[in-house]
Each structure stands twice: as C-alpha cells, then as structure tokens.
Amino acid sequence: MKNNVVVDFKNVFFYYGERPVLEDVSFSIKQNDFIAIIGPNGGGKTTLLKIMLGLLKPDKGTVKVFGKDPEEGRKLIGYLPQNIFFDLNFPINVFDTVIMGRYRGPLKKYSEKDKKSVLDALETVGMLEYKNRHISMLSAGQLQRILIARAIAREPELLLLDEPMASVDPETQKSIYELFLELNKRMAVVFVTHDIGAISIYVDRVLCLNRKLFYHGPKEGSLGKLEEAYSCPVEILAHGIPHRVLGRHKK
Amino acid sequence: MEIFQYEFMRNAVIAAVLVNVTCGIVGTYVVIKKIVFISGGISHAAFGGIGLGYFLGVNPIVTAVPFSLLSAITIGLISKRSKLSEDAAIGIIWAAGMALGIIFINLTPGYAPDLFSYLFGNILTIPVSDLYIMLVLDSIIILIIVFFFKEFYAVSFDEEFSTVIGIPNRVLYLVLLCMVALSVVILIRIVGIILVIALLTIPSSICRQFTYNMKKLITSSIITGIILTIAGLWISYLLNLASGATIIILLAIVFFFSFFAKKVITAVRRLEKKDSM
C-alpha cells in the first residue's frame, strides 16, 4: 500500500436530487490515523461514510479504499451504523449478532477461529457475559457496544463509526474512547461525533464537514475555519492552546 | 382412524406435511422480515397465472409458477429501485394480477369448473400429480435455505450491514420473494389464493412468541403448521365445513390463545421473581 493511505477522496461531489451534500471534498486517511468528523446536521457526515462504504456512489470525483473501489475495499472496514434499522424482536442473540461481522463468503461455515474472535471482541467491549442474551434484553448503550464488537470482530484495518457515543452514558463514553485509542494501535479509526469536548482530548485530526470540507488537521488548521463550518463561534476546540477546557480533577 | 381409509384423505395429509415444510421455512422469513403484505400481493397476483392455465387448457398450477415468480420479481424491483413506495407497488401488482386472471377466464369458452377451489382451496381434491409438484418446489426451497442460511439470516436482520460485509442484499431479497411465490403456488391448492397469507404467517407468529432461536423457530413453525392443518382437516370432516377456511380459523384461534398464554406466562414469571427477591 503506497504511503499507507487507507482511504483517498479526490474532488468528490454528491447530490441528493438537486441539493448538493458534498462539494469538492478531498482528503486522505492514513494507517493509524485517529480522526473525528464533525459538522452540523445535514452537513454530509453520514453521506461521507456511506460513500467510503460503497453504499452511495459519488456524482463526481474518485474514491479509493485500500487502493480499490469502495465495493472491493470495504471488506477491510469495520462499520458501526448511526441508526439501528433492525427489529429488536428479531430472533437473534448477542453471539449470533457479532459473528455476522466474521462473514467471509457463501458456503463457508464459521470456524473455531471465527468463534474465538467473537468472544475476544465481546471481551474487548466488556460484554462477554451477555453472549447468550437476546438483543431485546439489552440497554441502548449495551446494544451499541455489541454493534462495536460486531465491527471489530471483522479484524478490520479501518474502523468507521457513525455517532458511536449516541445513547451511551458519559461514564461508558470515556471507556469507549479509551477502547478506540487501544484499537487505534492496530487500525485506523474514523468517527462521526457531536461531542466536540472529547475531540481535543483524544483525536489526532478533525475533519469539519458542512458540504465542503473545512478543516484539516491540528497543525495546519485554525479556529476560523471551524467557525465557518458551524457558522457560529467555536471556543471549546482549542488546538495549539491548552487542549483541556476545564482543569483536571485533583484526587 | 376411519377417515384415513380414503385415498383423498391420505393425499390430504401428505399435502399438509409438504405444505407446512415450506410454510415453516419461508413463512418464518416472511414474518421476521415483515413482508407479509408483499406475500399477499404475490399470492393474489398468482390468480393471473391460474386464469392463464384455464385459457391455455393446462394445469393452472403449472402456469401459476412462472406468473407468480414474475410478479414477485416485479414487486421486488419496483419497490427497491423506484420512488414508488412499496405498498403502492404491492397494491398495483395485487389488483393487476387478479384482473388479468378474470380476463383470461372471460376469454376461455365455457364455464370454469373448480375455479372456487383455487380461490378458497380444497385440500381434499388434490391430485397425486400436484403432490409431486409440491415435492419438487419443497426441495428447491429447502436446498436454497440450507446452503444460504447465513446470508438470508443476515439480510433479514440488517440489510445495510449485510451489504457492507459483501452479501448481495438485493439479489437475496428477490430470491426470497421468489421462494414466497413458489410457496404461494404450493399453498393455492390447500387454502386458496385468498387465504394463503394465513398459513404462511400464523404458525411462525405463534412460535415466535416462545423462542428467539431462528432454527428452533423454523422447526417449531413446521411442526405447529402440520399439527394444526391436520387437526383443521379433521374438524372440517367432522363438522362438514370447507377445509381451507376451517384450517385458517383453527390457526387464528390457536394464535389468539397462544398470545394470551404468553401474557399469562410472563405475568406469572414476574410474580415468581418478585417472590424470590
């Protein structure tokens, strides 16, 4: 893989009907990047992820995932969707949900190694003891962790997470961010979030998306561009200056 | 039992088994994937195929196969690829198929005998040749599900994620609708076009309340279907009622009974938990 580029967007445009959602978006994600995508609602964040996954096709521009077309390259992506469209009463338990992440092709049975990876993934998200539980018996936060486990059970090289902190309480959020940091040693992690506070603590780079991509990396960026994206003053994100807005608790 | 002395009764029992194998399998997917009314549309559209059979002077079941496959694929393509909503697509195919059937029967000279048995079914008049057709269709459905269980399971659960992990979601959806179409054809003889949807959905809806395991759900739906079909047949014999309708009414009664039984069981378990705490 040249320069370890995992995802490469060049001049990508996307329209829903006549409405432009993405305009001239170019960026690349490298191996071991830890990136947050932020931006207002309707700014195109989910669309961007769906283009990476080959679920939507750009109207203009090129997208390469692991040097290939997204439909090919997405095999190496672990994905956590934002909305849960499935039926919680579907006859499936936690283990069977997570093992779907191990799917490799038709007529291939799940191997012992697949089963082991599922247990490892459940252990990683702290849900191992729930493996036989039906999905309707989980809280929203637990379900979110199960779906993260499903994404990482694939042993992906890129983890795409759409609003991973939605419906997760602040206490668990911290442990999930730390989990992402840990996973980031093995794979690139990209997530969409509204939680600007967390970004300054954990993330290497921030992509600000409001139709156009406004901000690109802490070193080259400036607050002005973030404000342009949000069209309101943004103070909480203070790259270069102290990273924390509030002081640490003293123990 | 005396009623099994008759060949038509033996055929009816064999048909009950064959039909419920497909219903247990396909019906479970219909219920969990919530495509009950798509299946209703496909079954009514199959009437066009029945009419075509009368018109061409061949076994209507044979012409119903390609006709319902075609309507299944049409509904599948229209609902997924165009801006037309799924329920509008179902409505159009549903009515157009039936209308075609009526026109075909109009164009056929003379009176259409046993037309009623296609609309309302009659498990007692099933000829042996139809049993063979059922057996073939059953085998096709079983083979598809055995080989692609994982894929259908994943697609029924979470379409978007299935696509991302490389399962051809749209193709499988169409295959599933085609299996529904084949089941409909098998079912037409038993309960008739109008009542097909009941045998396809009630056994799985009953069992679904008591298990969260997919394989157990399929097997228990098959067994429930077989027992209730044969019981319904027996009741219809005793009371001298139409067999298809009696089977459906029995299914519906058992469904409501199981629904309340489930509520009682849950309430009792809650009380037990409270006591033990």
Task: Summarize this structure briefly.
Chain A has helices spanning 45-52, 70-73, 94-99, 112-124, 140-153, 170-183, 196-202, 223-230, and strands at 5-16, 19-30, 34-38, 60-65, 77-80, 158-162, 188-192, 205-210, 212-216. Chain A is of the alpha/beta class and 251 residues long.
Order of helices and strands of chain A: EEEHEHEHHHEHEHEEH
| Overall form of chain B | globular
Q: Which stretches of chain B are poorly predicted, pLDDT < 50 over at least 5 residues?
A: none
Q: What's the total number of strands of chain A?
A: 9
Provide the β-strand percentage band of chain A: 15-25%
Query: What's the overall geometry of chain A?
Result: globular
Count every helix of chain B, treating DSSP H or I runs of 4 or more residues as helices.
12
Spatial order of the strands in the main sheet of chain A? 5-6-7-3-8-9
Oligomer class:
heterodimer
Sheet-strand content of chain B, in percent, reads under 5%
Tally of helical runs of chain A: 8
The beta-strand count of chain B equals: 0
Strand pairing plus helix content of chain A: what structural class? alpha/beta
Tell me the span between the first and last alpha carbons of chain A: 46 Å
Present the secondary structure layout.
The complex is a heterodimer of chains A (251) and B (277).
Chain A: E1 5-16, E2 19-30, E3 34-38, H1 45-52, E4 60-65, H2 70-73, E5 77-80, H3 94-99, H4 112-124, H5 140-153, E6 158-162, H6 170-183, E7 188-192, H7 196-202, E8 205-210, E9 212-216, H8 223-230
Parallel strand pairs in A: 3-7, 3-8, 5-6, 6-7
Antiparallel strand pairs in A: 1-2, 1-4, 8-9
Helix pairs in contact in A: 4-5
Chain B: H1 7-32, H2 36-56, H3 60-81, H4 86-107, H5 115-120, H6 128-147, H7 149-157, H8 159-164, H9 169-191, H10 196-208, H11 214-239, H12 243-276
Can you walk me through this structure?
The complex is a heterodimer of chains A (251) and B (277). Helix content of chain A is 29%, strand content 24%. Chain A is built from eight helices and nine strands. Chain A has helices at residues 45-52, 70-73, 94-99, 112-124, 140-153, 170-183, 196-202, 223-230; strands at residues 5-16, 19-30, 34-38, 60-65, 77-80, 158-162, 188-192, 205-210, 212-216. In chain A, the strands form two sheets. Chain A has a six-stranded mixed sheet, sandwiched between helices. In chain A, strands 2-1-4 form a three-stranded antiparallel sheet. In chain A, a hairpin with a 1-residue loop joins strand 8 (205-210) and strand 9. The longest helix of chain A is centred in the middle third of the chain and has 14 residues, at 140-153. The termini of chain A are far apart. Chain B is mainly alpha-helical and 277 residues long. Helix content of chain B is 82%, strand content 0%. Chain B has helices at 7-32, 36-56, 60-81, 86-107, 115-120, 128-147, 149-157, 159-164, 169-191, 196-208, 214-239, 243-276. The longest helix of chain B is centred in the C-terminal third of the chain and has 34 residues, at 243-276. The radius of gyration of chain B is 20 Å and the shape is globular.
